[in-house]
Amino acid sequence: MIERIAEASPRFKARIAGVLPLFSLLAAALTELFVRGSFNIAGGLIALAGMVSVRLHLYDLFKPVNRGLSLLAASFNLVGLTFGALR
Fold first, then answer.
1. How far apart are the first and last CA of the chain?
2. 13, 22, 21, 80: which is closest to 51 by C-alpha?
3. Mean pLDDT throughout 46-66?
4. Residue whose C-alpha is closest to residue 27's, from 8, 13, 46
5. What is the pLDDT of residues 12-53, one digit of tens each?
6. 53, 39 in Cβ contact below 8 A?
7. Would you tell me how many other CB atoms lie within 10 Å of the CB of residue 9?
8. Contact predicate 35/42, CB 8 Å
9. Structurally, how many domains does the chain consist of?
10. Quick one: how far is CA 61 from the chain centroid?
């Protein structure tokens, strides 16, 4: 399975990176609507995991263009997500 993803075209990887935020947003919204109280943390963690996944897919997509700049953008995004999660 991992080999198939590694061999996937950049267009397919871009589509995955575009669809993942929608799933993350949907999971966070449904959790906010239907689950209140202590279980609300689960929705935030699902959204955070989705955003990390999106960032890693975008890094992989832009790596052939400029690896250093893509790594810098991924690093800034992951640090921002970390500070957002700790807030």
1. 36
2. 21
3. 82
4. 46
5. 877 887 787 777 777 777 766 776 655 556 666 777 777 888
6. no
7. 8
8. yes
9. 1
10. 13
